[in-house]
Write a structure and sequence with these properties.
Elements: H1 7-18, E1 22-27, H2 33-50, E2 55-63, E3 69-78, H3 81-94, E4 98-103, H4 107-110, E5 113-115, E6 128-132, E7 138-142, E8 146-149
Antiparallel strand pairs: 1-4, 2-3, 5-8, 6-7
Helix pairs in contact: 2-3
Length: about 150
């Protein structure tokens, strides 16, 4: 298969693969995860109040092999979704957050060391990376501050 012939496939593959190396999040130095969640919840609530869901239905034709319309299929979507997302981004920016990409830690970076999760968002640096938790969440660690070696623990 040539990716040149299938640019949409190549683009979606890139998105899937890049999702494995970093994650996007709102970030503000000095806040805890709880404070971030509270601020994001306030912004989500305000945006939902300003731009409630407004579901519309479009009808798309279904064609037969001869190009004749033989039916229709409905497609529903929320026309306020984009405005809600924009309102959340603006609200978070007003609260001092920025949208950042944080890399996931690589096995070779971790080596034989254990790290404590970071409780308060530090200044971002190349030594800050994310780890996936068993429940599907993420925590940040600082590679420059190992707490012990795996071989000693």
């Amino acid at each position: 298969m040539s990716f040149v012939k299938y640019p949409a496939f190549a683009a979606s593959l890139f998105v899937v693969l890049s999702g494995c190396t970093e994650f996007g999040t709102y970030y503000k130095e000095g806040v805890t995860k709880s404070e971030l969640n509270i601020d994001r919840g306030q912004c989500n609530s305000a945006a939902a109040a300003a731009y409630p869901p407004r579901i519309v239905t479009d009808w798309w034709p279904i064609y037969d092999g001869n190009g004749r319309i033989v039916g229709q299929r409905p497609e529903q979507y929320d026309i306020n979704e984009g405005a809600r997302h924009s309102a959340v981004r603006s609200c978070m920016a007003e609260k001092g957050y920025e949208k950042v990409q944080i890399p996931y830690c690589k096995d070779e970076q971790l080596g034989e060391n254990h790290y404590a999760k970071i409780e308060v968002a530090p200044e971002l640096s190349p030594s800050i990376c994310g780890l996936r938790t068993e429940d599907g969440g993420r925590v940040l660690i600082d590679l420059s501050k190992p707490i012990s070696s795996k071989s000693s623990g």
